[in-house]
Write a structure and sequence with these properties.
The complex is a heterodimer of chains A (about 325) and B (about 350). Chain A is an alpha/beta fold and about 325 residues long. In chain A, about 45% of the residues lie in helices and about 20% in strands. Chain B has a single domain, classed as ABC transporter involved in vitamin B12 uptake, BtuC (Orthogonal Bundle), CATH 1.10.3470. The chains are: A alpha/beta (about 325), B mainly alpha (about 350). At the A-B interface, helix 2, strand 7, helix 7 and helix 8 of A face helix 2, helix 6, helix 11 and helix 13 of B.
Chain lengths: ~325, ~350
């Protein structure tokens, strides 16, 4: 009984100390995001926000994860009631946010959108830090053009049709192939982000005996699937080999493939928006532009370094 | 007892395999007309020495391996419970994640780690199978509802096991399982399907499992009165399916040396159920024929590869697949089946008494 009492007292003391700490100048932020289990991208995104919006950096962060818009809306509303200073949102859906964001504006809460845009009036948020998927596709196609191959016979493996990433990464390549005679899509097929499907698609091209020298896969997993098919058929790929291999997302293991020269290119979709938002909050000034596009890198196997893998690689090895 | 079991196998016989065999024939014919060299097999120097066989035929048989293994287990569950397990894809993601988790624990992957990894993956998959089986057999929940639970949460559990999105493993042993054993010209997954098939055939040959499963599926009450523990038989069918799930998951992971909990064997449950149906098995339970389901799996794969080879636009693939499948299922429907059976009997001029329940 005595033990229990002392425990309760100790706990009360702790809470008291924490309450005093709260009274310090910690900036209260409420973060509404998608759950880290969604993808490797999201896991890195969540980790980035945890790292930047930490107590050491002067923040008191509350986070809520859901892939459901209505749950996200309820969480955002409760953050407003709790009296946070800033609200950071990566919305599950682009619609339905008007009321909540108006409430936030009335309460004097600064709203930041990250990763995904919301269909609302620009006046309702301070800034939006988002990715431009088309820019990723354009960067990749420009890199491919820079190789200066005589002929481009491309196996184009697409993501789930209609997703932002698929459209952004597909269109620049499709347009390029339509505009140039020496750029040819040997096959353009969706594997819906499925590695095994990507392998089957590549196999069917190999079995047909058609010539190809580029694999343009819209994520790392599908590039790996395609490469598995090349390996089984003993087709050389990578730097200075017969087939150029391109992937997206910059998983750590994929960047390692680049470092080893097995793949040629990996396009980034930056999940690191937290620092940009933190800088704006700390500066206390409104940014020059409301919509801030993350600059996406594209890694070339011939120039990538070990440090790049550590800095930009997502997930585990 | 055993004799009766064999007899019912035979009566399920040729009529049941008719539709899938015709389908295979038509698909082969279609492809040969379209491109005479479609089924040609090439020899390619393998990347691990020796010569390996490649070509569409190899791609089809190899690519259907996971589906074929799952279809075998699904047939048993269907026969015993009169319902299907829709959680096999999610369960395979869990099994594959366990496989990778165990493989990643030591620094160097040896044969021993491999066996340990496969064993633990089998145990986990059987446990989840037993979970589904208990809901179905003991609590009498409809199989589709019972397995909906694991279908919904399975891939999240798989994520949690490795705590990362797409962990990779690399080892020559995994390569040997997923593609070719050095010196052997045929992809290893084909041998695995063969092994599972032979194992099941031996089980049916030396035990009463087939007879008991069919009895429970046809009339549970009658089976019970005859002293068959129907709860145990149903549970067992789910546990055997669990083993199939573990095998399929390991093949899937080994092919790519990577586990992606979101995409590993995605939507395979629908294909597995389809394979059982195309194979002429009644989805309402009772008589079954494993070979039909395996054939069904190869048909689905052949269809996919054909569509890829024809370069059907991405957005249309599923629609074309659906058209062919509608045709197959209608051909296999009780009404059409009866017509075909009547025609067959008429041809043979004999009228064997039908044993057991016709396709309901």
């Amino acid at each position: 009984m005595k033990k229990l009492l002392s425990l309760v007292l100790a706990l009360a003391l702790c809470l008291g100390v924490m309450a005093i700490a709260h009274a310090d100048d910690l900036i209260k932020v409420g973060i509404v995001n998608n759950p880290p289990s969604e993808s490797g991208y999201r896991a890195a995104n969540v980790a980035d926000f945890e790292k930047v919006f930490s107590t050491e950096n002067g923040y008191e962060a509350k986070t809520y994860y859901s892939i459901k818009n209505d749950e996200q809306l309820a969480a955002a509303q409760s953050f407003i009631t709790d009296g946070v200073d800033y609200l950071l949102i990566s919305a599950a859906e682009t619609t339905g946010w008007d009321v909540v964001l108006t409430n936030a504006a009335e309460a004097g809460i600064g709203v930041f959108l990250f990763d995904r845009m919301i269909d609302v009036d620009e006046a309702l948020y301070a800034a939006a830090v988002v990715s431009d998927m088309r820019q990723e596709g354009e960067t990749a196609v420009a890199w491919l053009e820079g190789l200066g191959l005589e002929e481009y016979n491309i196996i184009h493996i697409q993501g789930a049709m209609g997703s932002d990433a698929q459209i952004g990464r597909s269109n620049p390549l499709t347009e390029k192939c339509e505009a140039n005679d020496n750029w040819k899509l040997v096959v353009q097929q969706t594997a819906t982000w499925d590695e095994a499907e990507a392998k089957k698609i590549t196999e069917s091209v190999i079995n047909s005996g058609e010539k190809f020298n580029v694999i343009y896969a819209e994520n790392d997993g599908m590039a790996k699937g395609a490469v598995a098919a090349l390996d089984e058929n003993n087709i050389a790929h990578g730097v200075g080999k017969d087939v150029v291999v391109m992937g997206f997302d910059c998983n750590k293991w994929a960047l390692r493939e680049l470092l080893a020269g097995n793949w040629n290119y990996d396009g980034q979709c930056s999940p690191f928006q937290a620092q940009v938002i933190s800088d704006i909050i700390k500066s206390g000034e409104a940014p020059a532009q409301k919509i801030i596009i993350s600059v996406e890198k594209g890694f070339d196997a011939t120039t990538i370094t070990e440090q790049d893998v550590l800095d930009y690689g997502l997930g585990e090895e | 007892m055993r004799k009766a079991g064999k007899a019912s196998w035979k009566t399920g016989g040729i009529g049941q395999l008719m539709i899938p065999l015709i389908a295979v024939g038509l698909l082969i014919l279609f492809n040969l007309i379209r491109d005479p060299s479609f089924f040609s097999i090439h020899t390619t120097p393998g990347n691990s020495g020796g010569i390996v066989l490649t070509g569409n035929l190899i791609s089809i048989i190899n690519g259907a391996s996971e589906l074929a293994v799952l279809a075998m287990g699904m047939t048993l569950v269907t026969a015993a419970c009169g319902g299907q397990d829709i959680s096999v894809g999610a369960a395979a993601a869990i099994a594959g994640s366990v496989f990778v988790r165990v493989l990643k624990t030591p620094d160097v992957i040896t044969g021993g780690t491999m066996i340990l990894a496969f064993a633990s993956c089998c145990v986990v998959a059987m446990l989840f199978g037993a979970f589904n089986g208990t809901l179905v057999a003991v609590f009498r929940i409809q199989p589709m509802i019972a397995t909906l639970i694991l279908y919904t949460c399975g891939r999240s559990i798989a994520y949690w096991i490795n705590g990362g999105a797409t962990p990779t493993v690399s080892s020559p042993i995994i390569n040997a399982i997923g593609s070719y054993i050095p010196g052997v010209p045929i992809p290893t997954p084909i041998f695995i399907v063969l092994a599972v098939g032979i194992l099941l055939a031996l089980v049916f040959r030396f035990t009463n499992l087939r007879l008991y499963t069919q009895s429970v599926g046809i009339n549970q009450g009658a089976a019970k009165l005859n002293g068959i523990n129907s709860t145990m038989i149903k549970l067992l069918s789910f546990i055997i399916l669990g083993l199939c799930v573990a095998t399929a998951g390991c093949i899937g992971v080994s092919r790519l040396s990577l586990i992606n909990h979101e995409t590993l064997l995605l939507d395979v449950e629908m294909d597995a159920i389809l394979a059982v149906a195309i194979g002429g098995n009644s989805l309402g339970g009772g008589k079954f024929r494993i070979s039909g389901s395996i054939l069904g799996a190869y048909i689905i794969q052949m269809l996919t590869i054909t569509l890829y080879a024809m370069k059907v636009p991405s957005t249309n693939v599923k629609a074309y697949k659906a058209i062919v499948i509608i045709l197959l299922v209608v051909m296999g429907s009780p009404v059409v089946k009866k017509k075909i059976a009547d025609f067959w009997k008429h041809l043979r001029g004999s009228h064997p008494a039908s044993v057991g329940k016709e396709a309901a």
